[in-house]
Design a protein that fits this description.
Elements (H helix, E strand, L loop, with lengths): L1 H6 L16 E5 L3 H13 L3 E5 L2 H10 L4 E5 L5 H13 L5 E5 L4 H10 L3 E4 L4 H23 L1 E4 L2 E4 L4 E4 L2 E3 L3 H12 L7 H9 L8 H14 L9 E4 L3 E4 L2
Parallel strand pairs: 1-2, 1-3, 3-4, 4-5
Antiparallel strand pairs: 6-7, 7-8, 8-9, 10-11
Helix pairs in contact: 3-4, 7-8, 7-9
């Protein structure tokens, strides 16, 4: 009955906002009728839909590449469904996971959300609402991913490249713009030996600078501000005769 009702609403796309053609979602659905409905629903919305009938196929698909989100219909409440939810959350942390279920049991919903699900939709559902919830989760995950790329952590130091802020042990560390840019370039080239000339070119914008001592002074100040023992640095290392190396 639920599948028949849903099928009648899917003759046209629900939203005028379509995702990029390469945005793929994985649907794990044991019911053949609902598989057809969900495949049509998300295809009309512009998603590339990878739809599988069981847990084993779903996990195999995840191993081949993480999608933008997962829709999981639990065949029945119980440990097997909970285990699958937990496995997906552990396999790809941060991946949006929406549970579909015929159960409206609050305790089951809470447990699945605690195990890693991001949303829980009870069958029968509104196609418009399901699409809206999925889009919201994908947007949130995308923003979180971009935001995470702006934050760099080593030892007790946290660098926020977006806000241009540095904290050490929870306390804000004041640095000059050039010190910050030097740290940013070193962090993005971690473990690589970088010459003084390359630092001058990338940070100061000069092919040749009258005094490479400028780089040495900035490295000294970064050590004083960010190393636990500036006299024995473990992050901002000097490679004699070559330049510097940053180890996170």
């Amino acid at each position: 009955m639920a599948a028949t009702t849903l099928a009648t609403t899917l003759s046209t796309p629900i939203s005028g906002l379509r995702p990029a053609p390469t945005e793929r979602i994985l649907v794990i659905e044991h019911d053949a009728a609902l598989r057809k409905i969900l495949e049509r629903l998300f295809s009309l919305e512009g998603y590339v839909v990878d739809i599988v009938p069981d847990a084993a196929s779903g996990l195999e698909s995840l191993w081949q590449g993480a999608p933008a989100a997962v829709i999981l219909n639990l065949p029945r409440p119980g440990s097997s469904g909970r285990d699958l939810c937990k496995k997906i959350a552990n396999l790809v942390p941060g991946l949006p996971l929406v549970i579909l279920s015929g159960s409206s049991d609050v305790a089951d919903k809470v447990l699945l959300l605690e195990l890693g699900a991001d949303d829980y939709v009870t069958i029968p559902f509104s196609p418009r609402e399901l699409v809206a919830r999925l889009r919201a989760l994908i947007r949130r995950a995308s923003r979180s991913s971009r935001r995470g790329a702006d934050v760099y952590v080593f030892a007790d130091v946290t660098v926020d490249f977006f806000k241009t802020e540095i904290t050490r042990g929870g306390e804000k560390i004041n640095v000059t713009p050039k010190e910050f840019k030097t740290l940013e370039f070193l962090a993005k080239n971690a473990q690589r030996v970088i010459s003084r000339d390359e630092l001058l070119n990338e940070v100061w914008g000069y092919q040749h600078y009258p005094c490479t001592r400028t780089v040495d002074n900035h490295m000294l100040r970064l050590r004083q501000k960010l190393e636990s023992d500036p006299s024995k640095p473990s992050h901002f290392l000097t490679v004699y005769g070559q330049g510097y190396k940053f180890l996170p």
